[in-house]
Amino acid sequence: MPLGPLKRVVRHLMLNHLFTEPAPGQIAHSEASRILVTEPGMTSWLGHNYDEVFRSFGLFPEALKRGSSGGVADDGHPGKTATALAFDQPRGFFGGLLAQEPWRAQRFAGAMHAMTRGSHDHSYLANGYDWEQYKGGLVVDVGGSSGFQSIAIATAHPDLHFVVQDIEDLGSKLEEHVSALSQRPKISFQVHDFFKPNPETSADVYFLRHIIHDWSDSYASKILRNIASVMKPTAKIVIMDIVVPEKGVLPWHTDRMISFMDLQMMVVVNGKERTRQEWDELLALADPRLKIVSVKQPQYSVASIIEIGLVE
Question: Is 213 part of the annotated catalytic residue set?
Answer without folding.
Answer: yes
